[in-house]
């Protein structure tokens, strides 16, 4: 997916609990950011109308709701969310969930992304949750299942990009959260890379939150990341 413009590869995470604050930030960022992620925090605080408005204004929207439930519930949820006009929508990478999501999407244009293993997890966390596989093996398995089922892309740590690319080939998008510019705090992420490292590893889209949204100058921070992506490409 090398044809994606550098600016469109940056997805800014609007992990903000207030729609007005999020709207002000989007206005401040202006043309420097073309793609936004809306997850639980903003989505459950009234952010879906904002997502629909931004999509109508030409912004790309990533609805990061990581759907996972019985098949019928997932299918109906995806059908409802498909009407917003988002570019991406996440589901957890369980086979039944992924199949239901494809069914629920129908002919809608939204692309479905399967979340392999959260970037806040390491091997100890996986073992504590009852998984017998190490993180890398679990990511590989879920990426293989996503490809077989027909999911459009995968969400994984940049550290697992090469093995996901081996499994998924060039046709599936790889979206990576937990990207931290050099010198930025890692926060609650345990498997992170810088933007340049992520691009070198083969990531298509980079999700960045606090390094932009909590910056004293969000626009300058976003532009710096876009520049780093451009150089890496």
UniProtKB/TrEMBL annotation:
Residues binding substrate, per UniProt: 15, 37, 64-73, 119, 180, 189, 209-210
EC numbers on record: 4.1.1.23
Active-site residues, record numbering mapped to chain: 66
Single GO term (MF): orotidine-5'-phosphate decarboxylase activity
Residues of the Orotidine 5'-phosphate decarboxylase domain: 9-225
Reactions the enzyme catalyzes: orotidine 5'-phosphate + H(+) = UMP + CO2
Keywords of this entry: Decarboxylase, Lyase, Pyrimidine biosynthesis
InterPro entries: Aldolase_TIM, OMPdecase, OMPdecase_AS, OMPdecase_bac, OMPdeCOase_dom, RibuloseP-bd_barrel
Pfam families: OMPdecase (PF00215)
Pathway: Pyrimidine metabolism; UMP biosynthesis via de novo pathway; UMP from orotate: step 2/2
Top-level enzyme category: lyase
Transmembrane portions of the chain: none
Lineage top rank: taxon: Bacteria
Subunit composition and interactions: Homodimer.
Family statement: Belongs to the OMP decarboxylase family. Type 1 subfamily.
Free-text function comment from the UniProt entry: Catalyzes the decarboxylation of orotidine 5'-monophosphate (OMP) to uridine 5'-monophosphate (UMP).
UniProt-recorded name of the protein: Orotidine 5'-phosphate decarboxylase
Gene: pyrF
């Amino acid at each position: 997916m090398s044809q994606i413009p550098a600016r469109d590869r940056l997805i800014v995470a609007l992990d903000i609990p207030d729609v007005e604050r999020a709207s002000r930030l989007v206005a401040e960022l202006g043309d420097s950011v073309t793609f936004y992620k809306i997850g639980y925090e903003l989505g459950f605080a009234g952010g879906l109308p904002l997502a629909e408005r931004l999509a109508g204004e030409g912004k790309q929207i990533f609805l990061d709701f990581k759907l996972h439930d019985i098949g019928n519930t997932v299918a109906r949820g995806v059908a409802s969310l498909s009407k917003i006009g988002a570019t991406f929508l996440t589901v957890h990478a369980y086979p039944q969930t992924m199949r239901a999501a494809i069914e629920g999407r129908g002919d809608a244009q939204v692309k479905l992304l399967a979340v392999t293993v959260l970037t806040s997890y390491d091997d100890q966390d996986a073992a504590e949750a009852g998984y017998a596989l190490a993180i890398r093996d679990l990511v590989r398995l879920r990426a293989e299942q996503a490809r077989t089922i027909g999911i459009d892309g995968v969400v994984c740590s940049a550290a697992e990009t090469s093995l996901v690319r081996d499994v998924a080939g060039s046709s599936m998008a790889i979206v990576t959260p937990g990207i931290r510019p050099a010198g930025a705090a890692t926060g609650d992420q345990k498997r992170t890379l810088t933007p340049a490292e992520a691009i070198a590893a083969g990531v298509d889209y980079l999700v960045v939150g606090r390094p932009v949204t909590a910056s004293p100058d969000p626009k300058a921070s976003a532009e710096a990341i876009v520049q780093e992506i451009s150089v890496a490409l």
